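User: quick one, fold this
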Amino acid sequence: MITLTNDKKNLFDYYINNLAELAPYFHLTTKQTWKKSCFEDTDFEGEQKFKELFTVVAREDEQIEGFIQFGLSSYGYDENVEKDFLKPIAVIRQIYFSERKETIGQKLINEALNYFKQNNFSQYYAFFHALGMSFTSSHGKLSKNFDYIENLLLNNGFKIEHENVYYRKILQNEFVTKNKVILKHDCNLNECTENITFFLETEPIGKCNIFYLPDGKRVYLRWIFLADEFQNKGYSSQSMKLLCKYLYQKNCTELHTDTADSNFRAQRYYLKNNFSDLGRTRSYLV
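Assistant:
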């Protein structure tokens, strides 16, 4: 018999045994780091992500068969992708259960749908990108490895809202030819986040922002850009090589990133610079 409960006992063990490494952003981590990311999460600026967040666990004979998190975020985003604290987001943050256990999945999603209905939310999301767990660098989208969970969402009225391509590069000691591009790190925004500026001799030509994942070995590239007048001249690839060498020398082993499925220029750039395409991730909307 399946029972739904708020009891979170052994939920971390469920993550480690059933989810870790099944998606490219689900890494092995410590229980303390996972719990903070799951239940008391903050964003890159230190803001609480959720006004209210509910966790419901499905158990059968005390064994966890799945769980869901849903609630109301502390903020949304305006048309300029700036935080708007007057527009919180109703969202299913995550839902996971075993394949071929659709009945359990339906029971869990009903909990969220009832919450949205009771609070008269006319619009709500699932797997909203920026509201993922911070130990994954807040990558909130659902990996295509869980296509049966996507089917559940689609069968309950959700539509695909946005799609990204996820990339990873195994770091090594990059050979960087002598060139005029140099890298300088700016003041760290916090202990986990760093801004880096690329210079052509003394002129700044671009920047990037990186997030060090809690395991100390993986790094997430949040964004990178070069000014238009310096593109298509080889400086972009030189900058990436400098970044990878810099991280390798800090004993980091992997660099992760993602980009929109419509951003073909960025996709070509990552593949050209020896990133591996690890598949699509999606968010959903009603």
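User: anything notable?
Assistant: The chain has a mean pLDDT of 93.
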